[in-house]
């Protein structure tokens, strides 16, 4: 396990480095989008592989992992980036238009895919019927596609870093890498992300044993998987925040949350054709309250386009509450 842990850290660092090379070549917000989509695609593959081999007890794995990804990105990564940014620059700036639109899309998809199943009556339990699941998958893909189009085409300037006088912008002025270097970095990025997920899957039996040993619910396994898979994005977002590029950090965090829902739910919907047993998607009352609190606080955070250390403390407190409740429900 020590060797697996060391290899996992190395794979994360390699992924972050090559992601930044690719991002510097293609520019923002495409760089953030590339890393978010790449990590999420592999996360979906990990969830599906664990569900295929885990038996009935993995019926909530997709829900737990997606919800954990939302809480980690919207509270953990956002709060950590705000903390790093405000400690170095006191007040940090970002585009309220781009960030608020991304957050609204996250909350909408999270409500439709994770909250609504607990209230539908066509099927018993927190599940969707086949037609409802197909509808949720189509809506997820459609809304995520609109977000990507707005981010990269129509309103790309809303997702670019806010120019701040006196900030460290030296990396932006460096000459972009060549096409050959970018292609090599892209291949190595994909390889390192595959390694991150493979190592996370290798460590999952030990994680499950640890969860059982401390008496925590099995939903903690989904939290652990999300934490491991989101490590590359976390490091990249924190490095951007340190350079006073909070918009890039928000692109990574909120984009990852969107990709996690918009790609995972359709993938799970297709895979459910071959999997046995119910697919439990609806959140419980406790998780719904945390999601609602995240929506309200996140909206207040991004509405002004400016943030201080107070906002970082609030988001980190919500994230700490999520972790605590996950372990001791």
TrEMBL record:
Pfam families, alphabetized: Na_Ca_ex
UniProt keyword terms in alphabetical order: Membrane, Transmembrane, Transmembrane helix
Spans traversing the lipid bilayer: 33-54, 66-88, 100-121, 133-154, 181-199, 211-232, 252-273, 280-300, 306-327
A GO molecular-function descriptor: sodium:proton antiporter activity
Record's bilayer topology term: Multi-pass membrane protein
Domain of life, source organism: Bacteria
Annotated localization: Membrane
Broad class of the protein's primary localization: membrane
Domain Sodium/calcium exchanger membrane region stretches: 2-152, 185-327
GO CC, any one term: plasma membrane
InterPro entries named in the record: Alkaline_pH_Ca-Antiporter, NaCa_Exmemb
Name the UniProt record assigns to this protein: Ionic transporter y4hA
Organism: Pseudonocardia bannensis
């Amino acid at each position: 396990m020590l060797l697996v842990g060391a290899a996992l850290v190395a794979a994360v660092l390699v992924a972050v480095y090559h992601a930044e090379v690719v991002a510097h070549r293609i520019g923002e917000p495409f760089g953030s989008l590339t890393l978010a989509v790449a990590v999420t695609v592999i996360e979906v593959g990990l969830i599906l592989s664990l569900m295929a081999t885990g038996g009935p007890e993995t019926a909530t794995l997709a829900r737990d992992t997606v919800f954990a990804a939302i809480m980690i990105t919207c509270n953990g990564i956002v709060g950590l980036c705000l903390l790093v940014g405000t400690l170095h620059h006191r007040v940090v700036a970002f585009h309220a238009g781009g960030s608020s639109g991304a957050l609204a899309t996250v909350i909408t998809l999270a409500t439709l895919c994770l909250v609504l199943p607990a209230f539908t009556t066509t099927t018993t339990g927190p599940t969707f019927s086949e037609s409802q699941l197909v509808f949720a998958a189509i809506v997820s893909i459609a809304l995520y596609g609109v977000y990507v189009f707005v981010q990269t085409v129509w309103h790309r300037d809303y997702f670019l870093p806010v120019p701040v006088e006196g900030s460290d912008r030296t990396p932006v002025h460096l000459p972009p890498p060549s096409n050959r270097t970018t292609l090599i970095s892209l291949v190595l990025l994909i390889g390192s992300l595959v390694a991150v997920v493979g190592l996370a899957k290798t460590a999952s039996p030990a994680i499950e044993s640890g969860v059982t040993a401390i008496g925590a619910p099995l939903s903690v396994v989904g939290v652990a998987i999300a934490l491991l898979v989101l490590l590359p994005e976390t490091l990249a977002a924190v490095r951007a925040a340190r350079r006073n590029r909070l918009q890039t950090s928000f692109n990574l965090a909120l984009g990852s949350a969107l990709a996690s829902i918009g790609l995972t739910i359709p993938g799970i919907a297709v895979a459910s054709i071959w999997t046995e047993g119910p697919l439990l998607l609806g959140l419980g009352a406790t998780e719904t309250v945390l999601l609602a609190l995240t929506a309200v606080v996140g909206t207040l955070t991004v509405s002004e386009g400016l943030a201080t250390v107070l906002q970082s403390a609030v988001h980190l407190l919500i994230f700490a509450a999520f972790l605590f409740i996950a372990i001791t429900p």
